[in-house]
Amino acid sequence: MPLRRDLRLGRWRVDRGDRKTKVTYSLPVDLVDEVRSVVRDAGAVSYSMFVERALRQAVRGERERLLELEFAEAARDPQFMADLEETEQAFRYADEDALGSTE
Q1: β partners of residue 3
Q2: pTM of the predicted protein model
Q3: DSSP character for 82?
Q4: What are the sequence ranges of the domains in the chain?
């Protein structure tokens, strides 16, 4: 994410070019205190930026977890596995050409 210097505020800001909206969440007091401490001690750009990064990381992790579950489900499907095997065989020579034959 590119940063730009905000001359009005005298600090760096993330230039994402996207719209923002304010939201309200209820969080445990000790967690809010920890966030404040980390932002202050680490010199983060802002509380909002810290929370945005944390949420993006959490969302990415959840999407990866869901994808893993879908892959696991697909691996238990005999028809899917048969189609996969058929596709691998159909492209075997192209794969060998691209990767170099191992034989």
Answers
A1: 14
A2: 0.60
A3: H
A4: 26-99
Cα–Cα distance, 68 to 74 (Å, whole number): 10
Structure-block tokens of residue 89: 């065989």
Other Cβ atoms closer than 10 A to 70: 10
Q: Judge contact between 14 and 6, C-beta under 8 A.
A: no
Looking at residues 12-26, what average pLDDT do you find? 77
**Per-residue confidence (pLDDT) for residue 75, from 0 to 100:** 94
11-14 and 3-6 beta bridge pairing = antiparallel
Report the C-alpha gap between 56 and 82 in whole angstroms: 36
94 φ/ψ angles, rounded to the nearest 5 degrees: -65, -40
DSSP H or E run through 55? helix 47-75
Which three-class secondary structure state does DSSP give residue 57?
Answer: helix
Neighbours of 13 (CB within 10 A): 16
pLDDT at residue 15, rounded to an integer: 66
